[in-house]
Amino acid sequence: MSRKFIATILAASLAVTSISATPAAAGDDNLKKFLLGAGTLLIIGSALENGKAQVVIKDKDDKYAHGYGHGYGYKKYKKKKRKISKVLPRYCLRRIETRRGDVRMFGKRCLQRNYRHADWLPQDCKIRVKTWRHGHRVTRVGYKPRCLRHYGYRVEGGRRHY
Predict the structure, then answer these.
(1) Where in the sequence is the domain holding 121, given as residue range(s)?
(2) Of 13-22, 106-115, 140-149, which gets the smallest average pLDDT?
(3) Domain co-membership, 94 together with 143
(4) Domain check: are 151 and 96 in the same one?
(5) Structural contact between residues 65 and 59, judged by C-beta atoms closer than 8 angstroms
(6) Looking at the domain assignment, is residue 96 inside a domain?
């Protein structure tokens, strides 16, 4: 049975028995008995409430010491890191001819279409290359492969020097 239910029945029985046992007479004795009974009920009620308190065990690392000392809730405090794939698609690696020679780079537009985290690539690796396309001067934007490798990115597939 519930503790609150038992406490309620106990309080009601004490109140009824104290009223029925005394004759109908006015005086200070009735007030004293009533206050004594109410105080007793308060003490019993608070003792029942204190019995419900959860035991907390202090440990060296207090933020993990919940429950019964078995590390309850440890995963709740662990920070989850976002896992970013650092594998770039091989077909975005281009060789572009310029007046000064060939330049190898990952095309920005190809990466935006085929690599989910293209917006988070390091800006230090970004390059602009001027070239000719269909008789017009064009500026192509991309990323240096060696610089990206320095930041931990790699090309999808087997090993290839770049």
Answers:
(1) 87-155
(2) 13-22
(3) yes
(4) yes
(5) yes
(6) yes
pLDDT at 73 over 70: no
Tokens 């279409």 correspond to: 113
Is residue 67 situated within a structural domain?
Answer: no
- Is residue 110 classed exposed, middle or buried when 0-12, 13-18 and 19+ CB atoms within 10 A define those classes? middle
Q: Running DSSP on this structure, what letter comes out for residue 134?
A: T
**What's the pTM?**
0.47
Sign of the CA dihedral with 108 first, then 95, 124, and 130 last: negative
Kindly state whether residue 111 falls inside one of the protein's structural domains: yes
| Summary mean pLDDT of the chain | 76
Residue 95 counted as domain residue: yes
State how many domains the chain has: 2
With cut-offs at 50, 70 and 90, classify the pLDDT of residue 79.
low
> For 51-107, where are the alpha helices, taking DSSP H only?
74-77
